[in-house]
């Protein structure tokens, strides 16, 4: 089902905080890709333009979300990520209604969705202060998976550049987390060894597994949802509910 604006903003804050954990001593973090249902502006556009009811709009939303989940972007194909996602909207509308929509509607839906999503990405003052304190003592690097245009937009929206010594987007390289090669690149960029580093992130499969694969000193899982690791998942060295608890972990590692 669809979420209200407050729910989406809270989820975005949680993700931004996990992303902000970035890298310390250095710590490598994760900027997770938000996959969110269309916000109220997009729903209202579909309702007023096509006269759709809430159930039909939800069906279009579900199809769009599924296409995002299955998305495989190939820059060499000659289409921008924006064009690809406009196509997702167009296909979702057509598949739901069985007919074509006005030519500009899919693009309007996409840019409303995109802009509203970026607007809710932010770092809290507490997280910003934490990053400033950490950077005064440690090297920080933000490592995120995902396609370059999308992730760079998020990095810019959150103004991550002022908090990190380096930012690495996995989609700009041959392999992404959890592969060792992307971590090795990060170590070289900061002039450090794996054992000098800890990995902080909110994904067991990419962040924590990647840190384990790369042989970092310790891994820290930000479990903001207070979930439990599934059987067979990699076991983090430390688990905290918020990145704000990170100084306590660093004190133990001194």
Automatic annotation (TrEMBL):
InterPro entries reported in the protein's UniProt record? HAD-like_hydrolase (IPR051400), HAD-like_sf (IPR036412), HAD-SF_hydro_IA (IPR006439), HAD_sf (IPR023214)
Cofactors needed by this protein, per the record, are: Mg(2+)
Alphabetical keyword list? Hydrolase, Magnesium
For this chain, one GO molecular function annotation is: N-acylneuraminate-9-phosphatase activity
State whether keyword Transmembrane applies: no
What GO biological process, any one, is recorded here? N-acetylneuraminate biosynthetic process
Q: Report if keyword Cell membrane is assigned.
A: no
- List the NCBIfam families: HAD-SF-IA-v1
The protein in question is named N-acetylneuraminic acid phosphatase
């Amino acid at each position: 089902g669809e979420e209200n604006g407050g729910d989406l903003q809270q989820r975005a804050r949680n993700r931004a905080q996990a992303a902000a954990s970035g890298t310390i001593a250095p710590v490598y973090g994760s900027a997770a890709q938000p996959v969110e249902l269309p916000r109220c502006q997009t729903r209202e556009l579909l309702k007023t333009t096509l006269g759709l009811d809430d159930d039909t709009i939800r069906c279009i939303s579900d199809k769009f979300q599924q296409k995002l989940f299955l998305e495989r972007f190939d820059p060499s194909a000659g289409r921008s990520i924006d064009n690809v996602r406009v196509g997702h909207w167009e296909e979702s509308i057509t598949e739901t209604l069985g007919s074509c929509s006005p030519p500009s509607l899919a693009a309007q839906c996409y840019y409303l969705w995109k802009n509203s999503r970026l607007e809710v990405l932010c770092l809290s003052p507490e997280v910003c202060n934490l990053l400033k304190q950490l950077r005064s003592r440690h090297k920080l690097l933000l490592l995120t998976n995902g396609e370059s245009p999308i992730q760079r937009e998020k990095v810019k929206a959150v103004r991550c550049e002022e908090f990190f010594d380096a930012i690495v987007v996995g989609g700009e390289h041959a392999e992404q987390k959890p592969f060792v090669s992307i971590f090795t690149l990060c170590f070289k960029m900061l002039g450090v060894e794996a054992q000098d580093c800890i990995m902080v992130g909110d994904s067991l499969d990419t962040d924590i597994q990647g840190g384990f694969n790369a042989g970092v000193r310790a891994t820290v899982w930000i479990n903001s949802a207070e979930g439990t690791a599934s059987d067979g998942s990699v076991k983090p060295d430390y688990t905290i509910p918020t990145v704000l608890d990170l100084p306590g972990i660093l004190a133990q590692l001194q």
